[in-house]
Amino acid sequence: MMEEEELEFVEELEAVLQLTPEVQLAIEQVFPSQDPLDRADFNAVEYINTLFPTEQVSTVSGFLHFSGFWLILSIMRLDDNIRTVVRGQTNVGQDGRQVKEITRDIKQLDHAKRHLTTSITTLNHLHMLAGGVDSLEAMTRRRQYGEVANLLQGVMNVLEHFHKYMGIPQIRQLSERVKAAQTELGQQILADFEEAFPSQGSKRPGGPSNVLRDACLVANILDPRIKQEIMKKFIKQHLSEYLVLFQENQDVAWLDKIDRRYAWIKRQLVDYEEKYGRMFPREWYMAERIAVEFCHVTRTELAKIMRTRAKEIEVKLLLFAIQRTTNFEGFLAKRFSGCTLTDGTLKKLESPPTSTNPFLEDEPTPEMEELATEKGDLDQPKKPKAPDNPFHGIVSKCFEPHLYVYIESQDKNLGELIDRFVADFKAQGPPKPNTDEGGAVLPSCADLFVYYKKCMVQCSQLSTGEPMIALTTIFQKYLREYAWKILSGNLPKTTTSSGGLTISSLLKEKEGSEVAKFTLEELCLICSILSTAEYCLATTQQLEEKLKEKVDISLIERINLTGEMDTFSTVISSSIQLLVQDLDAACDPALTAMSKMQWQNVEHVGDQSPYVTSVILHIKQNVPIIRDNLASTRKYFTQFCIKFANSFIPKFITHLFKCKPISMVGAEQVRWIWCRHLPDGFC
């Protein structure tokens, strides 16, 4: 039976491995081989017997039969395993459904546990809330504010957990009881403070109590309006005496006694710290609030009294009041942080009011006094900026409408200063010739800009708004006056001479009997005015930049000193033109004499000519003086040389064409004389 099965298996295997003749032929063509194993009619038994001819064929056949049987058994075992696996997979879906049901049950248990925990927690909160509300009402009646402060916050925190349960009548009732307790607490605390610090009459003897201190802790938890009302009533009561002492009709209310106002509030702040410093919580900043409210009241009262007595305000009095006020604002900045100031109370500065603020100290600094003797330019190295003062202007803002008095005073002072400069110039005369360090800048120029700097710094401390624009207008006015009265007004006047010069007169010039139209002193004066105008031009530009730094950002575009800078540029151009005209006019007679000379009568070429000698004489007289006196402004000396050359050369060529008729010898004489003295390449 086993042998039959084996034979059937072998036949089936051979049938599977039997290839068609076409496939076999294609394989032999692609993979040609002489190996017997690759032949289509390969017989394993014959092949083995060929390899082992000495062994019995039956032995090999038995071995092959045994191997085939073993392979069949292996295949059968694999089939059984496959059937087992396939049958096992049919139960997976059923097992998955069972697991899913178990997971759903677990989730349901988790939800139940969570709901149960929430219910227990909610019941505990409800118990705490009910008990807390009862205790809160009892403590409120007994004014146990210390215990109330701790309990009230806890009750409010617990009540937050019941916002979604407000539809339940019992919960809503508890919430209403809490609100009622808060309202009662607020009214009760306000009544206690009113009793302790009545609006009228003196304070309650004995000072603050622990009850009020604890009441402030409760007010921190209640509606913020309760806290604001407490602070408002206390500050009002604290400043009630001030309003009585410094009424408008009182002598101490005027500006000359403004120091007494600030001395009073300093005493009150000390009194507050001693008596009430521990009653109010630190985060209420009560001392600062008292000071800020005092500033608001003072600003209002000062504005009112200054409107009433505006005609009595003088510059010195106004500046005194402003200085004392800014000193006080500096004192506040040192003591308080300014955290209680709001946008509606005070507009904080975007930049410090000035880089050197003498009013930040309690006592005036010597900086303002040094300005009177300072002679440096405005381009000195910048000093460190003063820290922002959040209280700047909180009181001193009231003086701004009256700063026109200060501006008018500066207008008057600058007018007198310009008149003094004019008188001093006439009395002292033109500056002395300077051949060592260049042309001297007029000392009045430095004095003017030092005064400007003083006014600018002082005004910027008073206001950075419209008064700064008004002061800038005053600056512009007197910059122009200085340019007209001191500089242009003192330039020497040119005069025209009639008649011409002859050759004989030119010969006398060689001996020095005649000089240029401008004297040495006049040439030095022109150079000094030119140097002064250059200094004014540069310093005016720096002044404009400083003004823009100190004025409000919205007003920067209104600061423009271009017109004044153009005025000084005009003075410079006029000075250079005067120097050129003077030297040019001095050379005119020589050129005229050259054109009138009888050149056709010249018989031989010489190395001397009276007109050339005259031109060279004037150049040697004027140019070194101008060069030495413009040593500090070399670019303008260069401009002078260029302008003189541009003026002299065309005039020389014009006169040269007038030398007709001229002989060959005369032409050679002209060329020889001028080329001998003029620079290389000119001829």
What does this structure look like?
This protein has 683 residues and is mainly alpha-helical. The chain has 4 domains: 1-89 and 96-183, no CATH class; 223-335, no CATH class; 396-491 and 517-579, Tetracycline Repressor, domain 2; 588-677, no CATH class. It has helices at 2-17, 21-30, 44-51, 57-89, 92-141, 145-160, 169-196, 210-221, 224-245, 258-276, 286-308, 315-335, 367-371, 404-428, 443-462, 466-487, 503-510, 520-550, 562-596, 610-629, 634-657, 664-677. α6 (145-160) runs parallel beside α8, α16 runs antiparallel to α18 (520-550) and α17 (503-510) crosses α20 (610-629). The longest helix has 50 residues, at 92-141. It is flat, with a radius of gyration of 56 Å. The model is unreliable at 343-387, 496-516 and 679-683 (pLDDT under 50).
Features:
single chain, 683 residues, mainly alpha, Tetracycline Repressor, domain 2, 22 helices, 68% helix, disordered C terminus, Vps53_N
Task: Note the topology.
Blueprint: H1 2-17, H2 21-30, H3 44-51, H4 57-89, H5 92-141, H6 145-160, H7 169-196, H8 210-221, H9 224-245, H10 258-276, H11 286-308, H12 315-335, H13 367-371, H14 404-428, H15 443-462, H16 466-487, H17 503-510, H18 520-550, H19 562-596, H20 610-629, H21 634-657, H22 664-677
| Helix percentage range | 55-70%
Could you give a short account of the major beta sheet?
none
Distance between the termini: 143 Å
Overall residue-averaged pLDDT value: 74
Oligomer: single chain
**C-alpha Rg (nearest Å):** 56 Å
Per the principal axes of the C-alpha atoms, what is the gross shape?
Answer: flat
Strand % is: under 5%
Order of helices and strands: HHHHHHHHHHHHHHHHHHHHHH
Overall tally of structural domains: 4
Number of strands: 0
Number of H- or I-type helical stretches = 22
Uncertain stretches: 343-387, 496-516, 679-683
Helix and strand content put the structural class at mainly alpha
